[in-house]
Amino acid sequence: MAEIKPTASASVKATSVQPKKSSNAISWLAPIFCILAGYFIWRFILGNPSGFEIKGTGWFWPKHNRPTNALSGIYMGGIIIPILIGMFLMVVTFSLERYLTIRRALGNGSISDFVRKVQYHLANRNIDAALTECDKQRGSVGNVMKAGLRRYKEMINEGGLNTDQKVISIQKEVEEATALELPMLQKNLVFLSTITSVGTLVALLGTVMGMIRSFSALGAEGGGGAAASGLAVGISEALYNTALGIGTSAFALIMYNVFTTRIDSITYGIDESGFTLTQSFASLYK
Fold it and tell me: What is the pLDDT of residues 228-241, one digit of tens each?
């Protein structure tokens, strides 16, 4: 009976990379608090009765008229304004959250310099020094490189696998470490990309609602000179929605592009790290 040899997958140890634990509370708490904050800014700051000649009544949406300053004029844009303010606050909140996360992921120093130092230590067969560099880097690239280096060190003395199987094992470890690092970098970017497109549409809705209200008032008053003046004022108030929505969308787009560019540089460093490990092992431990 022929002897059955164990396959490479049966001989390779399971990954040592552990999933990262993180809270996702900000993803659903931030939008709620931002919309509420947007309403309170609109209702109590922009809608402060002292900024209007004619004070309205009611708690949720007082019908003030004749604003005396630009901020009070924004209040006249209607109930869509607090939603747009809330969306702007969401862009600010998630931009700060992504900045802090990606800043930690970038680690200490230049990624390219870090990779070159690891390459130097690997060329001198000094795995411990390379691991020390990973501890100093303290970023996503360093974490992936450290996971790969640990498997690299194990494979040096592994006698049950050939060189190609050892390289595959190192590559698999790097891929699994990468799969745990990248989702943390891309998390919550969907809010910025969504606001980029939805912000303008919400602003357009507010503008259309304001225009409908203005033309309805014009028709009810018969189209006289005073009514035409009121129409002009109503249109200017409706356009506050457009201005606020376009500004919010533009800010969200800029921040989204900034963060995706940073993530691309980290991803490139991770790819370079994996290539460095596999090529170094294949050339030094044939």
Answer: 666 777 787 788 99
